[in-house]
Each structure stands twice: as structure tokens, then as C-alpha cells.
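anyone seen this seq b4? input:
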Amino acid sequence: MELFIPVFVAVVIVVGLIKRVPLFDAFVEGAKKGLQILLNIAPTLVGLIVAVDMLKASGAMEMLCNLVTPLADALGFPKEIVPMVLLRPVSGGGSTALLTEIYKDCGPDSFAGQVASVLAGSTETTFYAIAVYFGSVNIKKIRHTLVAALAADFTAAVMAVLTVRIMLGGS
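predicted toks r here
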């Protein structure tokens, strides 16, 4: 398995030589396009990172969790996963840190730990994905995509709780 990358690169070089492709020129052109894409999406990513940090530092995330917790209790969500449900669409790193905290506080085999594990594996960092994919092709109108993606994230959270209850006998 460790030889896969070197073999793949060698095959690309050999095929390029056979087809008489100017390999270095093609590489340089690809690198230029990659840098241009990076320049297009960097401001969006910086804004997203600043927004996440501001949410956490200002206490707004904690306030939002306190507002949502009664609804989560009514839906049968463990209160420990509420911050993760709210942060997951925004920050993969932040939600992974919360997952680690849930494991430490409740245990990975607890109901909250199991739900958090399913949630981590079945949701996307929605805002990051939209910023990267749409930003790389300069799409500005994301309204319908955002609504659909957040609905999918909510559905995944509900299904994570139900899956653990049904399949793993969580309470």
C-alpha cells in the first residue's frame, strides 16, 4: 500500500511521455490554477474561521445551546450532544474536539458517546463544504443548497439518535 503513490506518479509520467505531453509545463499550469482557486476561496474560509471563533469566545454558542436544550430533551437527544449538533455544520475541528469531550465525560460506550459517534460519521461541515466547493467555481447564490444541507444535518442528528436507540439499544 505504501508504494501506491510512487507507482501512480510513475504511471502518470510514463503515460505523459508516451503521449508526448509537456509534463513540466502541464504541472506548472495545474499549479497556477490551484493557486488561483486557493485565492478565490481563502477569504471565505478566513471569514468562516473568524465567525466560529467569535461564536465560541463570545458565549453565543453556549447561549444557543441553552435555548435549544429543552427542545433537544423533548426530541430525546442527549443534552451532551447539543453543542456538537450545532457546531458540526460550521467546524469539523471544533466538533471533533466536542466529540472527544463527550467521550471523556460520558464514555464512548454511553448513549451520548454512541450518538455523537454516529453523528460525527454521518454529517458534513456544511458551511466549510459550501465555502470550498462553491467558492472554487465562484457561485454566490447558495440559498437553496444551504437550506437543503442544514435540513440534511438535522435529519442526520435525528437519525443518529434513532439508530443508536434501535440498533444498539441506547436509552
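Residues 24-168 form one domain. The CA atoms of residues 45 and 131 lie 7 Å apart. kinda curious what u guys think
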